[in-house]
Amino acid sequence: MTEKQVGWTKAQINLFMDYLTVVIIDMFESLEFDRTYIEHTLAGKDKLTVLLWCNNLDSKYKAALADKLGVELNDFTITLKTLTQREC
Hints:
This protein is an all-alpha fold. It is 77% helix and 0% strand. The protein has one domain.
């Protein structure tokens, strides 16, 4: 697939992933998870690993993450799957 077909440039994906990581950490901290544990879990992980991790979240946490990002759960799920396929 080309960038035009996917609709995201590498720079846009990188910005989204940076933002997603911050939102993940904030969200789990608000759910009373240990912030240090989540930071350690995601530290040094490449984009694909973080995307796969998000894809495998329990539906409750995936919904909370979509809500924190201000997007519909279905749209968020499709975006995660699309970006994961692109990164593979």
